[in-house]
């Protein structure tokens, strides 16, 4: 299938360099060798120009590493890159990986490239890399969107107030974009190119061991990175487990989650591929499909819209709407029955064993069910000395422990706790008119079963916890 024109943006409108030795693609957001529009575009152009394709990746560590990334995040990333590199090699595509910023690697290798192809990402750090590349590379540069179903600018040109305002816009457009992407045949293999790759990604554990990074948050056994593993999990989820997803998705003990969020965050699976698989699934009914597409398209792309149109999406003042900040300020001096330090929160040392279990699931396995994430965040607001400090704590804990932390969804979900994409509710202490979530929400599922599930997950990671004692 053709790549939709709305996915393609020209950043440097010059003709391809006549003496170029290859078409270069900077693998940055879509870290996969298949169902990747940017990669397929690069192959199309290389075939047209009679050139091979080279893919590059810049690995940051030490003081210049990706903000807040630690050993847990890097292990998953490197596993995915090893899988992608193997897939690229099978297709006859060269792969170069160096310890440098993505911009530095792309600018250097672009000196011999006829054309440079980029992914598109919406975080500030990604926008900074792409701007640096556009300034520093003098060849033709084309950016191809492969991280969302409907390109963000196509869906809406403004900051949307809520899912209800973005949803109809996406529904009108998404059938055009939920289309299979055929893998192009590589006509000119890159085997003969002599390119320097500083890193042998075939052994991701060895690469991780050689990096300078925060190792206080270790890798997890629960999830392994890579597009192969992402597709295996998706296939398993869309088997019998998918039937009843619409009714069971808000029950953490029901096993109805797809666990696609870490793979989407690292670009190891395409949201379009997921949507196609959901539509084609034999199990499940219309409600199950509608519920899942709401999560993977509407909610996820609302988050992309938010970070794209909010310069400081990590700032309480900029990310939280004015009405919510006003009401929280009015109630900032309300008595708080429980106050905890950030260390106590991180360790799960609170009076609420269900909250402690949710924190343990995140801390030990890198994941927490969405229903518990909301409860978890609301309680941090309630147990912090001020709404500003609660926001900062929630974001730090989220980004430190979740595999999919530092994601547009993460920044948006944290701001939602404080009123983003929501409306005023009945006034109450501490929260004012910001939505409150009480312990009564735990009655909607088998909370005791959830405690047992988390205990088993923690034990599997070699760090047993007791929540029932």
Automatic annotation (TrEMBL):
EC number: 4.1.99.3
Keyword Lyase carried by entry: yes
Cofactor(s), names only, from the UniProt record: (6R)-5,10-methylene-5,6,7,8-tetrahydrofolate; FAD
Alphabetical list of Pfam families matching this protein: DNA_photolyase
Biological process, per Gene Ontology: photoreactive repair
GO MF, one example: DNA binding
Catalytic activity: cyclobutadipyrimidine (in DNA) = 2 pyrimidine residues (in DNA)
Keywords: DNA damage, DNA repair, DNA-binding, FAD, Flavoprotein, Lyase
The keyword DNA repair is assigned to this record: yes
InterPro entries named among the record's database cross-references: Crypto/Photolyase_FAD-like_sf (IPR036134), Crypto/Photolyase_N_sf (IPR036155), DNA_photolyase_N (IPR006050), Photolyase_Class-2 (IPR052219), Rossmann-like_a/b/a_fold (IPR014729)
Domain Photolyase/cryptochrome alpha/beta: 21-152
PANTHER family cross-referenced by the UniProt entry: DEOXYRIBODIPYRIMIDINE PHOTO-LYASE (PTHR10211:SF0), DEOXYRIBODIPYRIMIDINE PHOTOLYASE (PTHR10211)
Family named by the database record: Belongs to the DNA photolyase class-2 family.
Name listed for the protein in its UniProt record: Deoxyribodipyrimidine photo-lyase
